[in-house]
Amino acid sequence: MPVTGPRVGRARERVLTVRGVGKRFGAVRALTDVDFWVNEGEVVALVGDNGAGKSTLVKLLSGVHSPDTGTIEYDGEDVEITSPADAQRLGIATVFQDLALCDNLDVVANLWLGRELVEGTRLDEVDMEQRTWSLLRELSAKISSVRIPVASLSGGQRQTVAIARSLIGDPRVVILDEPTAALGVAQTAEVLNLIERLRERGHGVVLISHNMADVMAVADRVVVLRLGRNNGVYNVAEVTSATLIAAITGATDNAVTRRAAENAKPAPPAASDALITALPGSGPRRMRDLPHDGRP
Ligand SMILES: Nc1ncnc2c1ncn2[C@@H]1O[C@H](COP(=O)(O)OP(=O)(O)OP(=O)(O)O)[C@@H](O)[C@H]1O
Ligand SMILES: [Mg+2]
Q1: Under-50 pLDDT residues of the chain
Q2: CA of 19 to the centre of ligand 1 (A)
Q3: 55, 207, 210, 223: which to mutate for ligand 1, most atoms within 8 A of CB?
Q4: pLDDT value at position 46?
Q5: Residue closest by Cα to atom 11 of ligand 1
Q6: Which residues are within 8 A (CB) of 90 and not within 5 positions of it... i.e. 6 or more apart?
Q7: Residue 180, pLDDT score
Q8: Quick check: 12 and 294 in contact, CB under 8 A?
């Protein structure tokens, strides 16, 4: 298993860029002209109310759906992600909310399911177990045995196993859909620590969450969707939960949304804290570039 070491001290490169994507389901416009990007070594929270389009955006990135309009760039090249296998090949791993673990199998078997290591005609159980331990150690995971069925693990540990499994194949982008939604306080802290480990390893992490405390604790940047459109991008260091909640609920519409709604010319950004006006490098939209690491 190729495991990439921490990419500390390097400029953080853009991995994934979504420009102007739209997606309809019949009469429902799930996404309209959405921009989104992920750099390596950063945690981007994707937030929004129920039905805002978060899962749809993630499904476009993980090859479940294809966009009707817009483009997706990976490493600066236009790509089409037409299947989960395409996403995997590119290096985009998604942990969906149901985790899709096999309860009756142990931790090692779950991690390597479908990608088992073999020695001749036999499974190389020793190698898989050793690699499982080294990955779990690297993630500071609190799992005492890798030879017990995952059914007997706590919710936080199961999330850990699902995340560890997503790292087999060394993806550059890891997408987590509501990883703490079903967890208590201690287990949530465990998963947030794990997300920090992912950032240290250099992965670009997309975190879908309804929990503003989690977002504020672990994200570098927050992208707000509202009614299928962008409604603000913020650096976490410069934003309050109140501002985020206002953007999520529509108490404040940002300039991007207003522009889209009015189909008008670009206007100055709204006076809200730390609003990153839009996508770097998208030409005529007069957008300000974001520092490489996504931080102020
Ligand atoms: N397969 C589908 N068929 C029809 N409509 C869909 C489909 N998937 C999503 N939608 C619609 O698209 C919109 C966006 O849904 P999406 O699931 O992306 O929202 P979300 O932000 O993930 O919401 P939640 O927080 O509830 O998970 C909703 O109006 C939803 O009903
Ligand atoms: Mg969803």
Answers
A1: 1-9, 260-261, 264-272, 278, 281-296
A2: 20
A3: 55
A4: 97
A5: 30
A6: 74, 79, 81
A7: 87
A8: yes
DSSP 92-115: EEEE-TTTT--TTSBHHHHHHTTS
Helices (H), the chain: 54-61, 84-90, 107-112, 125-138, 155-167, 185-200, 212-218, 241-249, 255-262
Q: What is this structure's pTM?
A: 0.81
Instruction: Give me ligand 1 centre to Cα 253, in Å.
Output: 21
- The reported pLDDT for the residue numbered 118 is 83
Q: Which atom of ligand 1 is nearest to the CA of 54?
A: 21
CA of 50 to the centre of ligand 1 (A): 8
Q: What is the pLDDT of residue 252?
A: 66
Domains of the chain listed by start with CATH number: 14-102+169-285 (3.40.50.300)
